[in-house]
Amino acid sequence: MVLTSLGPPESHRMAQQDTWTKKDLTGIEELSRPEIELLFRQADQFLPALAPGKGLDMMKGRTVVNLFLEPSTRTRTAFEISAKKLGAEVVSINTTASSLVKGETLRDTAMNIRAMGVDAIVMRHSSAGSARYLGSVLDISVVNAGDGAHEHPTQALLDAFTLRQRFGKVEGLKVTILGDILFSRVARSNILCLSKLGAQVTLAGPATLVPATLKEAFPQVRIVHDLKEALKDCDAVMLLRIQHERQTTTHFPSLGEYTSQFGLNAERAAWLKPEAIVMHPGPINRGVEVESEVADGPRSVILEQVRNGVAVRMAVLHLCTGAISR
Amino acid sequence: MNPADNSPLWIRGARVIDPSAKRDEAKGDVFALDGKFVDQLSAADQAKARVIDGTGLVVAPGFVDLNCRLGEPGRTARETIRTGTRAAAAGGFTTVVTMPDSLPAADNVGTIQLLREICSRDAAVRVLPTGTLTKGHEGKALAPLGTMKKAGVVAVTDTTSGVQNNEIMRRALEYAAMFDLVVLDHCQDSSMTEGGQMHEGAWSLRLGLRGLPRAAEEIVVSSDCLLAELTKARIHLQHLSSGGSADIVRRAKAKQLSVTAEVSALHLLLTDAALANYGTSLKTNPPLREEADRLALIAALVDGTIDAICSDHSPCTATEKDCEFDLAPFGAATLETAFAAAHTALVAGGHADLPLLVARLTHGPAKALGLAAGTLKAGALADLVVLDPKSAWTPSLADLASKSGNNPLVGRALTGRIRATFVGGRQVFGA
Hints:
- The complex is a heterodimer.
- Chain A is of the alpha/beta class.
- Chain A is built from twelve helices and nine strands.
- Chain B is α/β, with parallel strands linked by helices.
- Chain B is 30% helix and 22% strand.
- Chain B has 14 helices and 18 strands.
């Protein structure tokens, strides 16, 4: 799919990629840096369409199914709006409405949806690897909206896109990811995405959620259990939602204990460099991983992330569906 | 070849390897008469014998598998005695010990009798059943070990459920020893493995899958060794996967404890890195671990710490495995490729010679359970395998006799192939 140009053509740099060949976005793992940069340039083109009353029609006549087998409001809504901004029809299936609860296999559900003439399936699923599996089963586009504790590629892309917007480039930035790394697909995708774009990643949080073995899995990261150390040099801190419902009680004693050790409040935010920003994938647990004074403060780019999320997902849907020759 | 052919058997000019007799003859003959090995055939018997030219091939005792599942009763969509024992024969196994986690579980005399009836009708190789250690392998109350022994079980085990309670394990060991029943244990502390999908390490972290840590196995290997010391009973540790487990067993053996151990052929060949694409056919319990574990298991096999190589054949249907990784059942169908996998890893890999590999597939497992198998000595049952260690091949699904296709080695180049298998002097596999 050739980059859709809505404005003056950008100057072509060395190693710049112009064509997108992947029908699926299952993870950041599978993407190259030129592909990520191509996607960002496409998202740049879509930013003006985010204004109320604006919309495009390049996916007119196409249908996108949001197959959400795990609860989600924000990501599903962002994907719905992204598809609609491109003129596509959208059908959302959530876990209670899905036939999967009746014992149908994922392959059967997906083949049925495909048989109805759908162009893309956006899936959220509790099983790691399920998006890659679905992409291998189907000949239509599959976009991963989160697969278990594996990846959440559009979140990482919108995060990096936001950093790029703020700092001009991601290369050379120091980014600290703070919180529940062990169970977080957002963390995995961000580690991969930021590393590919040349940022230095620090992982911070309690040792049970940020085990030393993460260094074996991701040799490029730094692991820190001291919050001040983790915050003092970074350009951005990404807070992760503490998902108390997903952890057994053995990973940390209580939410209160977590907040007392790792919660980001104004006092601790003062350890950051003056220009450092605070990011969060949402939904925020106010008073747990972040206090309102920080979440709503001048460092926070949380709502910019949400807005950029629509442009990035538009780019993903446009490029992936466009990669399939019809 | 007519499988009913009961004529005398004469294999000429093969390399003969029989670790039970410390025999490794570059060019030798093997004779069988009336289902048993003999030292020589009379001139009259020679005249009517079936003669096989063994030039360039190896003759060894039929392999003994201490750990497999053949589907019956109750899981016939996965495997049957008919298909499973033909897979065994194709893999060179002439004696297989089946796990008791069938449907219903083999925790009672009736189920064991049913299995034996099916086997007498359908089995191509010798099938030796085990019973559960506790009722329904639930780990709560002892199964009727004495009556199951009378019904023909050769050992007792709670298989992948493990035994989570040390008091029950202790009493089970004491009680089973009274009947000379070996207790087999799948070593796993289930409190540490809930939701676990693969080895806990760098790969599980990358893939976002919950891990089964080494320590969950090593803790139970340790407690089993301590209980073997306390009770003086025999215990056999099933399919070790961690290098640390091998170290614990090595120390236990140095203390002369009656502990034996096995490793699956797959664990000698592959590591958790093979799971990078979430291949469900590689989802096994115990899980494939790291290269250091693989090398430690090989070293333990070579120095005798580990007595036996098992297939750990656990068939699953294509539908069962065609799903999200964490929804797929554990297990790989490996009877037909166990020898080739172990040969590729050990012999082609330069870690051991062929006689050692044969020992761990024959004499080692037979001795661990006290079975009259795994030997070419005169008077023993004429179970043997003819193999071509140099043959390179790539298993394909269409060639496999197992009813289930979850063999992770399909499409992978291996060396070492079974040419023919004989049970009681009758051919059960090979042209």
